């Protein structure tokens, strides 16, 4: 009976793998994107084998030249992968052996695909995290530009989706800047966890000869090496960290999208999105739909699902490596690709948006948004806060019944509710005065928002990583 002689593991088997099983277990269709990390890792590993006296100088040169040639062949599109060789690691090894012969067969000495794939994945993710952070910084730059350009626009701030207090539009935009700042911090933490090299752990127990792992780590740009070979090959925490960070990024962008969708409705009309980032209706000719924002919002479920997919896959795996862990890559790659695409298109969409100052200004005059400022006025006159709160609540109820706005009450009308009101109350009752009074750090006054924008811009310029 034909044995699995074409498989790296085929010596023990006397029956070939079925075609369906071969197709089912193969990962080359998706892990092929790891080719560069795998080749760079293999070149470094060959150097470590030479240092450990497993390879001689001639063999090292043949392996290095062969791998560099394979890299060029892949990048030019000349090299085709085969499902027969399962994954990117075995495809590259087979190509190398075909090119250089026995020297290529020595490359895998002491190395398992278990520590090989984990190393590849960490190298790949370090590069991807760096790219995602750059895209977040670009989006933050756009948010800062919008905040600066629209510093004079006031809008109603909301809690429970009910009008609450007047705020500057720029203040609300800067809230998303802060969310993105935390997203970068989470990604940097994920990067640190990726920056630990498992290579040299073998399949699970370590390596039988003197492999210099510190040398390998320096060659591959890792700052640390793993300390337990079983944990090293079975750990996917770093993958989950990246998926978790991606889930929080998309959550923040989904919230931002929801605001944009609301603001672009006829009922709000605070913002107009560019035609370049909206679509129409196949039936209703008047429609202008915020499809980009809606799709960003919709992709949150997909990225959450990717996180839960890997968490569930890992939840009951015994040590050390299990083939289940092959299932980490498709959700991970999908989340990375989606986040990069979303960050880019979202920045383009909001950069081209226009805000409607006139409509926003009218909106901020409705809804009795300065009621809390009147409470504070009475508190400064010596009225206990709870009594002041109740009193102003009665004033608001009167305004609702009379179909009038709080801002337009006369001093005489206010005095009907409390003799503590004086002429100076008129100076604090407007939306502009309410906003200007919020002078605490993090508040919505124009002065504090300008300071926040300036500080953010300085920090962004200093942010080199």
Automatic annotation (TrEMBL):
Keywords: Amino-acid biosynthesis, Arginine biosynthesis, Cytoplasm, Lyase. PROSITE patterns: FUMARATE_LYASES. It is found in: Cytoplasm. It comes from the Bacteria. Its EC number is 4.3.2.1. The keyword Lyase applies. Signal peptide: none annotated. Residues 11-305 form the Fumarate lyase N-terminal domain. Pathway: Amino-acid biosynthesis; L-arginine biosynthesis; L-arginine from L-ornithine and carbamoyl phosphate: step 3/3. Its main location: cytoplasm. It comes from Candidatus Saganbacteria bacterium. Belongs to the lyase 1 family. Argininosuccinate lyase subfamily. This is Argininosuccinate lyase. HAMAP family: Arg_succ_lyase. InterPro entries: Arg_succ_lyase_C, Argininosuccinate_lyase, Fumarase/histidase_N, Fumarate_lyase_CS, Fumarate_lyase_fam, Fumarate_lyase_N, L-Aspartase-like.
């Amino acid at each position: 009976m034909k044995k699995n002689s074409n498989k790296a593991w085929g010596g023990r088997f006397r029956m070939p793998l079925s075609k369906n099983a071969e197709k089912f277990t193969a990962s080359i269709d998706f892990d092929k994107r790891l080719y560069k990390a795998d080749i760079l890792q293999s070149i470094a590993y060959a150097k470590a084998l030479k240092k450990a006296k497993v390879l001689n100088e001639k063999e090292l040169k043949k392996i290095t030249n062969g791998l560099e040639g394979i890299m060029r062949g892949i990048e030019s599109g000349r090299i085709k992968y085969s499902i027969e060789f399962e994954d990117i690691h075995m495809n590259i090894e087979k190509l190398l052996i075909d090119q250089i012969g026995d020297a290529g067969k020595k490359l895998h000495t002491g190395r398992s695909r278990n520590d090989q794939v984990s190393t590849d994945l960490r190298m790949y993710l370090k590069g991807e995290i760096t790219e995602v952070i750059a895209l977040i910084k670009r989006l933050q730059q756009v948010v800062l530009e919008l905040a600066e350009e629209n510093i004079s626009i006031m809008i109603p701030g909301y809690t429970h989706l009910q009008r609450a207090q007047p705020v500057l539009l720029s203040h609300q935009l800067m809230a998303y800047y802060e969310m993105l700042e935390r997203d970068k911090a989470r990604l940097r933490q994920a990067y640190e966890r990726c920056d630990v090299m498992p290579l040299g752990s073998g399949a699970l127990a370590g390596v039988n000869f003197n492999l210099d792992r510190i040398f390998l780590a320096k060659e591959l740009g890792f700052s640390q090496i793993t300390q337990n070979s079983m944990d090293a090959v079975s750990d996917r925490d770093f993958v989950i960290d990246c998926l978790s960070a991606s889930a929080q990024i998309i959550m923040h962008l989904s919230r931002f999208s929801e605001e944009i969708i609301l603001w672009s409705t006829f009922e709000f009309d605070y913002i107009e999105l560019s035609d370049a980032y909206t679509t129409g209706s196949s039936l209703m000719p008047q429609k202008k739909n915020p499809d980009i924002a809606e799709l960003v919002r919709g992709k949150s479920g997909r990225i959450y699902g990717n996180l839960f997919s890997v968490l569930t896959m890992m939840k009951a795996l015994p040590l050390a490596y299990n083939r289940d862990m092959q299932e980490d890559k498709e959700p991970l790659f999908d989340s990375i690709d989606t986040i990069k695409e979303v960050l880019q298109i979202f920045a383009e969409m909001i950069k081209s948006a226009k805000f409607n100052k006139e409509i926003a200004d009218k909106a901020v005059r409705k809804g009795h948004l300065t009621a809390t400022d009147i409470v504070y006025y009475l508190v400064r006159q010596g009225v206990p806060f709870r009594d002041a709160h109740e009193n102003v609540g009665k004033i608001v109820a009167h305004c609702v019944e009379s179909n009038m706005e709080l801002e337009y009450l006369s001093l005489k009308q206010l005095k009907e509710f409390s003799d503590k009101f004086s002429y100076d109350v008129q100076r604090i009752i407007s939306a502009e005065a309410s906003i200007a009074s919020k002078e605490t750090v993090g508040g919505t006054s124009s002065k504090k928002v300008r300071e926040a924008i300036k500080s953010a811009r300085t920090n962004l310029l200093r942010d080199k990583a």
